[in-house]
Specification:
The protein has 536 residues and is of the alpha+beta class. The chain has one domain: Creatine Kinase, Chain A, domain 2 (2-Layer Sandwich), CATH 3.30.590.20. The strands form four sheets. Strands 1, 2, 3, 4, 5, 11 and 12 form a seven-stranded antiparallel beta sheet that branches. The longest helix has 23 residues. One of its GO terms (molecular function) is glutamate-cysteine ligase activity. It catalyses: L-cysteine + L-glutamate + ATP = gamma-L-glutamyl-L-cysteine + ADP + phosphate + H(+).
Length: 536
Amino acid sequence: MSSPSFLSEIIEQLSAPERVFAVRGIRRGIERESLRITPEGRLSSLDHPRQLGSALTHANITTDYSESLMEFITPVSDSLDVLLAQLGDIHLFTMQHIGDERLWPLSMPCFIGGEESIRLAQYGRSNIGRMKTLYRQGLHHRYGSMMQVIAGVHFNFSMPDSFWSEWQQLQNPECCQCKLISDSYMGLIRNVYRFGWLIPYLFGASPALCSSFLQGRDTGLPFERVGKGTLYLPYATSLRLSDLGYTNKSQAGLNISHSSLPDYLTSVRRALDTKDDTFTAMGIKVGDEYRQLNDHVLQLENELYAPIRPKRTPRSGERALVALERRGIDYIELRTLDINPFTPCGVELQQLRFLDLFLVWCLLRPSPVLDAAEIERNHYNMNQVALEGRRPGLQLRTAQGEIPLRVWSEQLFDELQLVAQLLDRAYGRVHYQLALQAQHDKLADPEKTLSAQVLAHLLAHDLDNDEFGRQQAELFRQQLLHAPLQYWEANYFADEAQASLLKQAELEADDHQSFDDFLRHYLQLPTAGYVPCGTE
């Protein structure tokens, strides 16, 4: 389970005076999702506000599945302070331009009257805009809309070029650097699957949900009730990450490989190319109306539900999978962070510092290939922590047998401490050790976790999730309406909104291809061609 001697050796080498500064400059980006709601706590039925610009082409403000599900995207930054300032400015501008609506501050959705009340996101008349809406139409037919309005925070992470130069010298000077980078990120991803249960334990914030989310379904889970219509599990950390939440059981048999980038790409291509009998029966186009992009297991790469993804920014008109094949992994996207309901932006500085050191640890630590038995254990551990992570004496599974979560967590924190010391040496501060200590306190006292704080507040005041969410939403609304911009100048967002609307209009005017032809061309992936050196 542990390999502290190997980790100590690597960190000692990276801590050498001539190398330690190579660790500085970690690059991050944040994508935060949030539902627009009415003052009464109901899902907004209004269009995406035009004052915010085009959801299709705006750099920072867009929508996800639903017209009411906002997505805020920061630029890439090597400063956490800058990152949070940018995220705060995006929230501030949005709040000033959505009238009396609020932003729902929880991961699990507010009261929803039914599937029909969830409007699909609209992106205009261009072929690419119509395709994005049709993709969501396919998700609706395949899985229903309720799951799609669960919200989270995605953390994009990459190491600086300076690190990879030193890492190559330490690991394999003869290896192509592009291949080394992709191999290293795949190792990081495998370790997140092994140890990622730690994230919902510390930061899960969805131990309860509105009963409307279940739509009368019997889950078989021993829910208890608080307030008028809120269901909770006493020791849950993140219902969002459980099998009840944002998961897709139909993808359980996909066998997506994380052994290497070529194996990953091959297995994703297989899912994109394989027809599914259930989806075939739904029909692709019935009469003149499309129901889904295709009848394959995955319509697009994005339909693969995963706690972490390897990423490469596509060029114009390029598929995400093809970008990875041609140029290798550039960054990873961690998708297991619940919205923090105690902060206006859904995430705060100490969380991000912990994610930094957790992901660096996952990168530096040995990461053998996952076999079927370990994959099953990893899924079990994640689901157990999501459903009852704070249960005293909770046991998790390892190759050596069961181990108490508390004991295993302490072992992992001993290793994380080494990484915190390395990062603090590199930056000349003690920020990472302090961030680690703040999370370590939650091991001894689970009541300090976000999920416990949320549940304690609900139970102490006999509150519904709905009422708690509305209270926090109004609090954050008042804070944001009266806050100054921290990073951008006052005209940035107005200019970007106008530019995005013009860009959407240009796309619509330049479309001369029929939608059928566009779709056929877009969905036809080029022949597989992974180039390990990243040269085309």
